[in-house]
């Protein structure tokens, strides 16, 4: 039998949960379908660090940070670099999202029980001019509870809606077709996959045990991106970033496969900016993996020295934490798909954080006692020390000669010359004696430590890399880590999807990563960070409210 409801949401990640709860609370009936099991509810948001982009927040003001809508919009537009005819709706979404981040976003979340860690992080610092890429001020607000803490309020709302009969979950339901009539969506059909109790994030069975058909007045596609599908990442790889990497690791599970994007496009939806993507360059292989090719991103402070595969220091302003896509473009221009950090024990214990809820048990578990140890511990946080000891990409030695030899052995070549590396480190070390210097990275360190948040927990006191008092020396081989799709289905501000001829497709909406977080790519070419979860929240809310209003 064909089941009928008011609205169908495809995808049980953050955007889908937000949309579904808005629909249910508007008094409409909604069915959420997802190819994964119930244990994967919340999607990629669950695994995240929980960072949110907020503007002129109480947390910022308490730390002496002066922010405003105008400054944030200037930073966003300088970062996005909108330059295409297709950027009309992405730009409108960007303007609306920055207004949301400077307005009701924090209070809306807080009313649901969401809380924020009081120290605001400073991501994507740029280093160009005032109208270029980067956050002029710290804006990265970490959710108290990390990814699970951002999912929890919406899962709670969804469970309440489920109890009162307005929301139904259909897990292990994989969509194969969007059903269309006279150019409008009337439902979905697909395959029922066998139950699988595999741990969250691990690859689940694809054995089909049945089929299904669901009809509704509206369908919201919130199925995520393509980061787990390396073939699709390479297929869409932009020429401006060079050739795609031969070796990549995955920042998302295998089921983030882009399959629903192809199905929706085949139904006539207009996909734009598919060559815009966001992949990290500080990826390390997980020594205790959950999904295939599982990688973790280092969230670095500003002090580590960064070298390309040939041993040349990355150019200004490509310092740790400055410009992710600029770093990616440079690294791929070298002809190699990896690079190196060289640092000290003093740097790693103060500056290394790992992205991901499972890598931050103190913040995820909401333990103030454990969190305070970040500032007081003699060693690095336990998950970082575990990677230092067990990670395939970490090398620890007492002297530079042994370190460089081990780096060449790990890379399987002899590209690094000890004397060349030593000369660059010694030149940098000579700049440490004075607070006024010409080395731009050292200038950056002094600037960072003027911000109390960085001085407390994110930036080591400037010191010489080759000073044995701060040893041992550490090298980290950095891999390209797949993560986010920045392009997506073109939508208006109600999340209604455009067709290939510029028409609105009746009944079809898109939210989250499938919609480029709004409009088909509200980030443009680059992100300011803390904006992916926020884009899921904002686009999911818009889609849910609009679809509920449209359902009679």
TrEMBL record:
UniProt cofactor(s): FAD
UniProt keyword Oxidoreductase, yes or no: yes
Keyword Membrane listed: no
Pfam families for this protein: FAD_binding_2 (PF00890)
Entry's Gene Ontology molecular function annotations: oxidoreductase activity, acting on the CH-CH group of donors
Annotated FAD-dependent oxidoreductase 2 FAD-binding domain residues: 6-533
InterPro entries: FAD-dep_OxRdtase_2_FAD-bd, FAD/NAD-bd_sf, KsdD_DH, Succ_DH/fumarate_Rdtase_cat_sf
Keyword vocabulary terms for this entry: Flavoprotein, Oxidoreductase
Protein name as it appears in the record: FAD-binding dehydrogenase
Organism for this UniProt entry: Bradyrhizobium icense
Lineage: Bacteria, Pseudomonadati, Pseudomonadota, Alphaproteobacteria, Hyphomicrobiales
């Amino acid at each position: 039998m064909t089941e009928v409801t008011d609205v169908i949401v495809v995808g049980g990640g953050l955007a889908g949960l937000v949309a579904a709860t808005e629909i249910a609370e508007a008094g409409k009936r909604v069915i959420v379908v997802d190819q994964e099991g119930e244990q994967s509810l919340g999607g990629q948001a669950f695994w995240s660090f929980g960072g949110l982009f907020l503007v002129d927040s109480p947390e910022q003001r308490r730390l002496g940070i002066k922010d405003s809508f105008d400054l944030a919009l200037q930073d966003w537009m300088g970062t996005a670099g909108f330059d295409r005819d297709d950027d009309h709706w992405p730009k409108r979404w960007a303007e609306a999202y920055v207004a949301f981040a400077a307005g009701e976003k924090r209070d809306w979340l807080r009313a649901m029980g969401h809380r924020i860690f009081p120290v605001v992080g400073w991501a994507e610092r740029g280093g160009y001019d005032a109208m270029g890429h980067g956050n002029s001020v710290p804006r990265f607000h970490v959710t108290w509870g990390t990814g699970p803490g951002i999912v929890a309020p919406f899962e709670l709302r969804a469970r309440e809606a489920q109890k009162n009969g307005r929301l139904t979950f259909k897990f292990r339901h994989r969509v194969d077709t969007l059903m269309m009539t006279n150019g409008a969506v009337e439902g979905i059909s697909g395959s029922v996959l066998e139950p699988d109790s595999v741990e969250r994030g691990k690859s689940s069975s694809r054995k089909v045990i049945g089929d299904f058909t669901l009809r509704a007045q509206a369908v919201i596609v919130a199925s995520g991106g393509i980061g787990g599908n390396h073939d699709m990442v390479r297929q869409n790889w932009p020429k401006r970033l060079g050739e795609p990497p031969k070796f990549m690791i995955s920042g998302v599970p295998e089921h983030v496969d882009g399959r629903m994007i192809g199905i929706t496009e085949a139904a006539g939806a207009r996909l734009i900016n598919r060559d815009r993507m966001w992949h990290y360059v500080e990826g390390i292989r997980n020594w205790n993996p959950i999904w295939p090719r599982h990688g973790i991103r280092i969230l670095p402070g500003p002090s580590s020295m960064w070298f390309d595969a040939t041993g040349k220091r990355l150019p200004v302003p490509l310092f740790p934490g400055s410009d992710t896509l600029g770093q990616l473009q440079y690294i791929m221009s070298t002809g190699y798909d990896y690079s190196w950090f060289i640092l000290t024990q003093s740097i790693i214990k103060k500056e290394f954080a790992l992205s991901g809820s499972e890598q931050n048990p103190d913040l995820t578990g909401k333990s103030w006692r454990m969190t305070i140890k970040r500032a007081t511990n003699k060693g690095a946080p336990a998950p970082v020390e575990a990677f230092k000891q067990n990670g395939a990409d970490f090398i620890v030695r007492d002297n530079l000669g042994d370190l460089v030899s081990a780096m060449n052995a790990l890379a399987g070549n002899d590209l690094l010359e000890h004397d060349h590396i030593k000369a660059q480190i010694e030149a940098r070390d000579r700049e440490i004696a004075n607070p006024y210097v010409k080395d731009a990275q050292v200038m950056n360190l002094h600037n960072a430590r003027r911000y109390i948040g960085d001085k407390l927990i994110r930036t080591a006191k400037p010191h010489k890399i080759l000073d044995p008092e701060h040893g041992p020396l550490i090298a980290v081989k950095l891999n390209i880590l797949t993560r986010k799709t920045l392009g997506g289905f073109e939508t208006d501000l109600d999340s209604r999807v455009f067709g290939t001829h510029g028409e609105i497709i009746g009944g079809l909406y898109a939210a989250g990563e499938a919609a480029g977080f709004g409009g088909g790519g509200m980030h443009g070419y680059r992100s300011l960070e803390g904006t992916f979860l926020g884009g899921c929240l904002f686009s999911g809310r818009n889609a849910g409210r609009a679809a509920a209003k449209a359902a009679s």
